[in-house]
């Protein structure tokens, strides 16, 4: 049943978005809205209304799925993909409740920097469908967590007198 006050096209786009999310496919709401020639705002409203009226359960996205998608689109080596996945697993608590696609992009950026690959935030932002500033902020947040974990490991490894 279509929620009142929403166009049929926005409703169809929201249904498609829900279906893809349930299947675990990494898709941006913007992409679905563009495909259906609807403004993202209308699709977002229809999506929220659908979830409320139909009591639909949407599983939480995993950054690993987004990492795979972005690495494929950007033709990055498997080593970067593996490193970015490890980074996301290390910083999972720090990035919970935030945009999964931005977290994946930031992890890829960290992995590229560690491997000295010439890669720019702008290219990742375009691929992830977000802002360069979002990636930069998440990058800093993730690096802070990684540094804290490494300093804790050093303290545990050093013999105490």
Number of helices: 9
CATH topology name of the largest domain, in short, is Cyclin A, domain 1
Q: How many structural domains can be distinguished in the coordinates?
A: 2
The SS-based structural class is: mainly alpha
- How many β-strand runs? 0
Query: Secondary-structure element order, as H and E?
Result: HHHHHHHHH
> Mean pLDDT, nearest integer?
87
Q: What fraction of residues sit in β-strands?
A: under 5%
Unreliable runs: none
| Apparent shape | elongated
Q: What is the CATH C-level name of the largest domain?
A: Mainly Alpha
Distance between the termini: 69 Å
**Helical proportion?**
over 70%
What's the architecture of the largest domain, going by CATH? Orthogonal Bundle
Indicate the radius of gyration in whole angstroms. Answer: 19 Å
């Amino acid at each position: 049943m279509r929620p009142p006050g929403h166009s049929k096209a926005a409703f169809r786009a929201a249904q498609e978005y829900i279906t893809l999310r349930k299947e675990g496919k990494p898709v941006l709401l913007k992409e679905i809205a563009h495909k259906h020639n609807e403004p993202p705002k209308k699709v977002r409203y229809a999506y929220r209304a659908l979830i409320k009226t139909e009591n639909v359960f949407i599983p939480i996205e995993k950054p690993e799925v987004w990492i795979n998608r972005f690495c494929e689109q950007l033709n990055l080596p498997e080593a970067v993909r593996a490193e970015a996945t490890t980074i996301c697993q290390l910083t999972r608590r720090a990035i919970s409740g935030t945009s999964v696609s931005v977290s994946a992009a930031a992890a890829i950026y960290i992995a590229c920097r560690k491997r000295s690959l010439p890669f720019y935030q702008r290219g990742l932002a375009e691929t992830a469908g977000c802002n360069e500033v979002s990636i930069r902020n998440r990058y800093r947040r993730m690096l802070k967590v990684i540094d804290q974990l490494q300093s804790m490991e050093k303290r545990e490894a050093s013999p105490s007198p």
